[in-house]
Structures are given as structure tokens and as C-alpha cells.
TrEMBL record:
Organism in which the protein naturally occurs: Rhabdonatronobacter sediminivivens
Lineage per the UniProt record: Bacteria, Pseudomonadati, Pseudomonadota, Alphaproteobacteria, Rhodobacterales
UniProt cross-references to PANTHER family, sorted A to Z: BETA-LACTAMASE-RELATED, BLL8153 PROTEIN
UniProt keyword list: Hydrolase, Membrane, Transmembrane, Transmembrane helix
Residue ranges occupied by any Beta-lactamase-related domain in the UniProt entry: 101-381
Name under which the protein is recorded: Serine hydrolase
Amino acid sequence: MTINRMFRITAWIFGTLALIVLVAFLWLRNSPYWAGITLFAESHRVENFRAMDRVFPYRDIARSGAVWKFDRAPRPLPATYDFAGAEHDLGAFLDRTETTGLLVVHQGAITHEDYRLGADETAPFTSWSMAKSVVSALIGIAIEEGHIDSLRDPIYRYVPALAGSGYAGVSIEDALTMSTGVAFDEDYDNPLSDINMLFIRAMAMGIPVEDTIAGLESIRAPGEFNAYVSSDTMALGLVLEAATGMPIAEYLSSRIWGPMGAEADATWSTDRTGREFALCCLNATLRDYARFGRLYLEGGARDDVQIVPADWVQASVTPEAAHLQPGDNPASDWTFGYGYKWWIPEDPQGDFTAIGVWGQYIYIDPARAVIIVKTSADPAFDDNDHETIAAFRAIARAVAGSE
């Protein structure tokens, strides 16, 4: 074989490979998987977080009935807040944490509403793990309606596929308080972590969620240690679906979204089997997140209509077990306390919050009748929760006139 012929063959091979790679890239670029691949990319995440219907399949959550209206009583935000022994500029903090929306409500009136980075009041911001607090409310309603007999029921009673898994000895209450003892790697930076593989298997490969979490193992007795495990909420989603006989989105629409007077339809992202991804991915407007927070501020009621049981609301934000208490706690992997999918900040002041990765919050201060909703695309979200609570507390004091 001559050198020229070898060169031509080599060039043909490399040219063919380059063409195959180009065609594959173009196919992927125009496929429904591209948005998922670029979900957290710096150049895409702000837009993706308010357009999750382009990233994943979804199920609709219909609003109905009269809207639960907010009054308007504009008040300025405080210029500064105190954190870690120093005074900080609030505007700079909102910029630094890539805030996309900030809504403040005091005594049923919107005092501040601000949208950033291309968003507006119609944007359906994704919740990330704030959805866990919504799942908790649905569990409380399902118990009240008799679909679930008891918090102490084992999860496998409703989801037999988990009978031989790490969830075999776990109760519904253990999962609500993230005290299951199940081993689960929540490291988003590790592409092979349990949380990332759960997304990949369900969202890309169409493997049923129960097949994945059935492979998880127990590393400690349930009910003794608080460790953040997102698969716990996936298990609760399976319980809700089995107990009520309804998709989670449909149950949410009929039991909360309609009765509380949401002003807009919402969506819940699903996996490739069509099941809501319960650990995250509710998509709604800031005002409707604030309405959900208002339910918890007002003991689960809208006016004179009880929507979430009042005793459930109270129990959800009042952790009693030692391993769920805020502060330095050897039986917890974080310094915030934990209720039924609600966080209790350090230095308890009666306030509580839903938290989602990348900086999503529904914060409630009952003593001051304040609700704050913040959505973000904050790459340093893991480092900013404590500072965010400091900022929220300063805002609540300012709008309530209790500086």
C-alpha cells in the first residue's frame, strides 16, 4: 500500500468519524435531552429554572375558584443586615446570590415584589426541594382523609416494592423527618452519586423510581439520626400515589392549589414514566408559592376553610425529637432543625422555611406575619443558607416595624 493511499484511507476514516460526531451532536442539540444536559450550565440555568417544561416532561396542576388575593402596601427593604458579626449590604447580597425573584408579604399585603435576570410575575419558577414541603402537606391531608392510617405505618405497606430494601423498617414519619437511616449520597458534584443516578435513571432512562430506591441499603436504625436523603421524599411520593390512587399533581390541584386560590396553573416535572419527581421540581409563580406559605402562616386555613389540618401544620414546624433540634447536634448532619419537610433555623424565633438547592426559599415568620419567597440560581447555595436567614430576619423586622 502506497503512502498516498494510506493517507487517503486515514483521512476518509477521520472525516467519517468527524461527520458522525457532528451528526450526533446536532441530533442531541435538537433532542429533548439537550436541556437536561445543560440544565445547570452557567449560560443556561437562569432560563432553565423558569422553563422546566422545556427540560422535562410534566403534569399540569390546575388552579380553580376565586383567587386568594393579596393587598398592596409597598415598603422599602432594609439597606443592610447583620451576619457573622458584620453589617452587609442587602442589594449586594441579592446580586451575589443571583436572585431571580423576591416577594415579601406582611399581614396579607405584598410589600415588595422584584423580578430579575429576565423573569417577570408570570414566570413558573422551579422549586427544587421546596417541593418536599408541599409533599409533607399532602401527606397530612391524606392522613386526615383516611387514605393513610398512621404516621407509624411502614412505607412498604403502601409500596410493596420497597419491602426488601433499606426502607423495610422505615415508617412514614421517619421519611418525613429524614431519619430513615438509609444510605444515600446527595453529592451533586459527583456524577455517579445516588442523587445524580436517580435523576439519570428516572429522567433519561425511564427506569421506575421504585426500582432504583429498592436498591438502597440501611446503615443505621431509623428514627435516630437526621440526614438529608432525597430518596425519602421519593418514597413518600410513592406512598401518596398508592394511598390516594391519584397522581401527586392531581391530588395537589384538588386539595391545595384550587382551594387555596392559586392565581396560575402550575406544573410538576415528571420522569420518563410520567410519574411526578416528588423530591423536587414543582413549577409555580412567586405569588402562588407565597400563598402556600400563607396557608402555613394561618394554621393551614384560607379564611374560614381549613385546607391543611391545623395540627399537622403545627407538628410540621415543631420538631420534638432530640436529633431534629437546631444548633450543634451530634445526631444531625446540619445545624438547622427539621420538622416534617420544613427547616427550623438556628437561634429559633418561631420562623421556619422550605429550602431548595440553588437558593429557593419560602420563609415564614409567624410572630411578624411575614412571608418571603426568594428564587435564585446561586452557584454557592450550600454556603449561603445561614446568611440568607439573617437577611430574611432583617427584612421581616423592617416590614413589620419591629427594628
